[in-house]
Amino acid sequence: MTGMTDATSAAAWLPQDYGDLLDTVVQEKSIASKAATLFTTTRQTVRFPLWTADPAVGWYSELDTIAIADGSTNEVVVTPSKTAGIDLLSNELVGDSDPAIALQVAQGLANQIAGALDTAFFGNTTAKGPNGLQSLTTAVVDPGASITNLDAFVAARYAAEAHAANLTHWLLPPAVAQTLSQLKIGSGYNQSLLQFVDDGVQIAGIPALTSTHVVGTGISAWGVDASQIRFVQRQGTTVELFDSPQNDAKWVRAVSRVGFGFLNPAGIVALKHSS
Predict the structure, then answer these.
(1) Which domain holds residue 87?
(2) pTM of the shown model
């Protein structure tokens, strides 16, 4: 009687190979990962130190005693949460297919994980998951009843700068992106206000990323500084293959542990309609 072992199984099924593939796909598909700075860790919890205020200085005459002044510090603590997906493959499918089945299953699991991450990132609080943008106290710019020009986006840039942030991305739903893309340079003109470039659209000089996961009452877009947000990934994604004797099949399970660190919430800007 024989059984499957690491030595007799195809290398594509080994956890490290599969996990690397899933990490790549998750980071490619997740808007949260693109709008943040990736930080990998093997620790349960990560602490990001913050310098919140400089020491005070003053003017002095010769031989005056210089007053002692301290700076102020704080920290942001991130504990990655687990998100996972699982799929069941018949042994006939595993045995009869070429190696492409591994890629298809990995991409399917990556879609689940990326979607779960972005839902949490753009949400408020998530049971057993990380808190998102709507849980923060951020800067807010009101675009008015509807978006008819780019004034709100210009105001958002300066609102972020007032809180020591330089926006690197707009995050908005496809419907808002379409509305902006159809704005014209003026009444009676057919020329679009925004121009498409190789990597998408820039709004007020800042690249835009679209996601169906951008939700929230009255929210049309978020402005973020990727250098002030951490996408914390613990140990990478792992994928394991298990026998399912009840139905002559194999389970493929993917697990990823991710958390978000918002180092300067005041520098994040929500474009939010007041009514």
Answers:
(1) 11-53+70-272
(2) 0.84
